[in-house]
Design brief:
The chain is of the alpha/beta class and 206 residues long. The protein is built from seven helices and six strands. Keywords: Ribonucleoprotein, Ribosomal protein.
């Protein structure tokens, strides 16, 4: 099991914690991690783009001129794609970009992402994260004491004070153990977890 230092809010080391290898020490599967990221980004796409084909634009009902003898190229409609105001060839239509991953695949992708952060020494564990008031300066002070800039901060449960204190920090995102995902873990350079968040993650994914 990997041993990771535990820090207080002032950035001082106050102990260590053993991370469960079933969650934080698996063999990293890059393919599943890639699939999880692509799936999350694809599921966010609206897919509402639309353009009209030649059958959908108005007008163009009659043949603009007779087939032969005019000197012009033959034309059947003024709404064909080569005409101004004509329809679009292979026009985009609304579609659903989302695709699903198996439950086991999603779980292992998350474990792989967490393991990669441990292997890269980009994980910090706090003994607690309790702010008395909503203050961006206080949250920034905690991160500065850990020498962390771009971070995903994870608490056990939704903490409104922590979330609102970090809201104005451009490179910081907060989450709780029920909302963590592969994309956010990889997007932010550092993962900051509270001790009880680590325990909750191990309880769910071990």
């Amino acid at each position: 099991m990997a041993n990771v230092s535990v820090y207080n809010m002032e950035g001082k080391e106050v102990g260590t914690i053993e991370l469960n290898d079933a969650v934080f020490g698996v063999k990293v599967n890059e393919h599943l991690v890639h699939m999880a990221v692509v799936s999350q980004l694809a599921n966010k796409r609206q897919g509402t783009q639309k353009a009209k084909t030649r059958s959908e634009v108005s007008g163009g009902g009659r043949k603009p001129w007779r087939q032969k003898g005019t000197g012009h190229a033959r034309q059947g409609s003024t709404r064909a794609p080569q005409w101004t105001g004509g329809g679009t060839v292979f026009a985009p239509v609304p579609r659903d970009y989302s695709f699903k991953m198996n439950k086991k695949e999603k779980r292992f992708a998350l474990k792989s992402a967490l393991t990669s952060r441990v292997q890269e020494n980009k994980i910090f564990v706090l003994d607690e994260l309790s702010l008395t008031e909503i203050k961006t300066k206080a949250m920034k002070g905690v991160l500065d004491s850990l020498n962390v800039q771009k971070a995903l901060v994870v608490t056990k449960e939704a903490d409104q004070t922590v979330a609102l204190s970090a809201r104005n920090l451009p490179d910081v995102k907060t989450a709780h153990t029920g909302t963590i995902n592969v994309y956010d873990i990889l997007k932010y350079n550092t993962l900051v977890l509270t001790k009880d968040a680590v325990a909750a993650i191990e309880e769910v994914y071990a």
